[in-house]
Amino acid sequence: MIYEKEKRYIIPFGDVPSKRAEMPEISVDERRGNFLEVETGFPEDMALKEAKRCLGCRRCLGCALCWAECKPEAIDFNIPDEILELEFDDVIVTNGQDNVFYSFNSRLGYGKYPDVIIDLQFERMLSPTGPTKGMVLSPLDGRIPKNVAIVQGHPEDDETHLLSSLVFGVNASTIALDNTQDLQVTLISSFCPSFQEKFLSSAENIRGLTMISGTPISVEKGDDEEPLHLTYSNNGEAHHKAFDLIVVLTKSKISPEQRALMKNLS
User: Fold this and answer.
1) What is the spatial distance between Cα 189 and Cα 212, in angstroms, rounded to a whole number?
2) For 70-97, b where at least 16 C-beta lie within 10 A, e where not — what string?
């Protein structure tokens, strides 16, 4: 039941998903005679759990200010919950914020170098509503890169994956080239027959985009001021080239949670 407290309308909730995690602290004995930090911070697993709890509530805080300010009285907190049965021809289950993908060559530097990112991060970067508002920027230092490589994370995969990832790579390259002045993009991947037949000639005519049929091998880097050094094979020979930003094309994976949801919906 809604009630008023200190000129605020309050809605009590008894279904809080989970309690707030308690900050770990050193013992009283450990604190004596030193200036050690008392709060040690969350370990990684607890920090991830707490972040998901905080960001995943998707629920009303209970202040009821919206109800108080709604002049048409369109908000009614007293409407009881009900279960609706809806009919659809198709149901699409998405990953949401948890993007799961198959592992790829760890030597490509993803997770090691901040300026090696995956295609999903690149797609978000190119979005007008993304963190950089469509600008291509290095996550390392925020600079605009001059040379970007888009490389295949699964060069030996099947035709379907190679085709879809190559089409994505070309489309993303086009957007990046349109948004960023003086940018050069190199796409390195195995070219499946269907891509060669339908799209390769058009891709090779895109200004600023270089298409290379090859396999990425490794990425190395010295200090933060140096570019990324990519090694890839082409026609049996190893080649080396420097890039400011490297994007790895991934292969999406169905998570256990998705499988369970799909099973329940089927």
Assistant:
1) 7
2) eeeeeeeeeeeeeeeeeeeeeeeeeeee
Q: What 3-state class would DSSP assign to 117?
A: strand
Query: Which residue from 12, 15, 11 is spatially nearest to 64, judged by alpha carbons?
Result: 11
What would the two tokens of residue 3 be? 């009630």
Mean pLDDT by 10 residues, the chain (266 residues): 51 61 90 88 87 60 73 82 88 73 93 92 90 87 92 92 95 95 95 94 96 96 88 93 96 84 82
The CATH architecture assigned to 106-249 reads: 3-Layer(bba) Sandwich (3.50)
Q: What is the largest CA-CA distance in the chain?
A: 76
Please report, for the chain, the start and end positions of each structural domain, with discontinuous segments joined by +.
3-69, 106-249
Neighbours of 136 (CB within 10 A): 22
pTM of the model: 0.66
Sequence letter at residue 57: C
Quick count: other Cβ atoms within 10 Å of Cβ 261? Answer: 14
Element (H, E) at 215: strand 215-220
